[in-house]
Amino acid sequence: MDIKLLTSSGVPFSTLPPSYVRPESDRPRLSEVVVDGLDIPVIDLSAAVDRSRLVSLVGDACTNFGIFQVINHGVGSGAAEEMLRVAAEFFELPAEEKMKLYSDDPAKTMRLSTSFNVKKEKVHNWRDYLRLHCHPLPKYAPQWPSNPPSFRETVSNYCQEIRELGFRLEDLISESLGLEKSYIRKVLGDHQQGQHMAVNFYPPCPQPELTYGLPSHTDPNALTILLQDQLVAGLQVLNDGRWVAVNPHPGALVVNVGDQIQVALSNGRYMSVWHRAITNTKTARLSVSSFLCPEDDALISPAPELTRGDDGSLVAIYRGFTYAEYYKKFWSRNLDQEHCLELFKNTIE
Ligand code: OGA
Ligand code: NI
């Protein structure tokens, strides 16, 4: 079926179209989700917190959860609120206006799309999304939507603040792995590292038990910083075999470490977290994912310090690759296949 934006039809769906229905074995099983009681760590990044304590909190969160929330993170509440506001306004634009930006070609650096990878997937997802490249801003911002009129300025401001936070987090993560503070930042390309954004819109869904906003996946980039709707929950992470809701925390941003840092650089010490977005019948949900990525030619491989086995031998689980190679492979597939990183494993006897 040829699918287009969920938000272009103008009328709410009363039943789920068949192409969104998951097979019985692959449904969200919402009644089994841990909705409270298990807290994803909330880490206070204010300067008052002792650095070595911060490093150990980040290390514990990465080891035990692969995801955490941060508060007092330096991204102004104004910048975050404005970002969500302009995102909501964007998705309220008339269908004809939005369809001008529609594309299902993942190679496009600016596109409004739907689901995940429409041409590759068998079952679709209940999501529309706008994808933007954000670095360098002078190159990419002029490609972005010009409506709403404040879009480019608001999103540019937000992107710059997020980038600063991303660098601070990369430094904390490097230190938590016992590496030099700037290790990850430098491998990713320092100030040249890439930055992409997905503005996700999940409309109310007639049958949330039968489909996903986004099915279980890990993020292919290095580090993701998610601004989620402050009122509507929907993000869930896999922890110890159970799906756990990451409930919105006032003013917090959600940080999760993607394939590049957690698996490749850390040699499997920190696992890139499996997460998904679910839908609900009543309220649309917005989220803004900022993806920090290695620059295209960055060579990603396990950090030499982290590949030494107990007997002193060198064991790198993954082979080295450039990010361009990884990214191309990622988008040539769908989210339900074998994990993309499996294709980059060394064969170790
Ligand atoms: C993503 C993602 C989760 C959410 O954009 O990669 O996982 O809650 N989003 O929207
Ligand atoms: Ni994700």
UniProtKB/TrEMBL annotation:
Residue stretches making up the Fe2OG dioxygenase domain = 193-294
Reactions accelerated catalytically? salicylate + NADH + O2 + H(+) = 2,3-dihydroxybenzoate + NAD(+) + H2O
Q: Which domain of life is it from?
A: Eukaryota
- Select a single GO molecular function from the record's annotations and give it: metal ion binding
Q: Which GO biological-process labels does this protein carry?
A: defense response to oomycetes
Q: Which cofactor does it need?
A: L-ascorbate
InterPro entries (UniProt xref): DIOX_N, IPNS-like_FE2OG_OXY, IPNS-like_sf, Oxoglu/Fe-dep_dioxygenase_dom, Plant_2OG-oxidoreductases
Instruction: Report the coiled-coil segments.
Output: none
Keywords attached to this entry = Dioxygenase, Iron, Metal-binding, Oxidoreductase, Vitamin C
Q: Which PANTHER family is this protein grouped with?
A: OXOGLUTARATE/IRON-DEPENDENT DIOXYGENASE
Family note: Belongs to the iron/ascorbate-dependent oxidoreductase family.
How is this protein named in the record?
Fe2OG dioxygenase domain-containing protein
